[in-house]
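Morning, I've got a small favour to ask if you have a moment. The fold is given in discrete form, as structure tokens running alongside the sequence. I'd be grateful if you could look everything over and explain what you see. No rush at all, and the record is pasted right below.
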Amino acid sequence: MFGRNFRPATIRTYKETIKQFLDFYDNKLIGFDEITADKIKNWFYTKRAEGAWVADTMLKHYKALKVYFKWCVASGYMHKNPIDLIDKPRLSQKLPKSISKQDAKFIMEYSFAMPVVDSFYYSHKFLLVFLLLTLL
């Protein structure tokens, strides 16, 4: 794992994730065979339910554990990657920013100032104004 030229910040993140995971179980997980998908899920869900993590944090820890356990499997410490049994956390979709009234007014004034070449452009001007008015 450390032969892949990870940045120091990446290695710190991985170490912190593993430390937090082990601290959650009071360092009672002695062997790699004791780390299961259910224990990882329990850690994820508990931290999320407590409000300690947002979706971004959960995804960061998921990715760190995925890389770490992949290395453990490749190095022979584990037989299979327990995180493979867990769905990747999804980030919440953010709503797009709406246009301000000032910007909408500017666009409408600009579109009315443009010369009308034919009916095609006139209908598009009408659609633009209609859409802007419905967004406000």
Q: What stands out?
A: Residues 2-85 form a domain with the DNA polymerase; domain 1 fold (CATH 1.10.150.130).
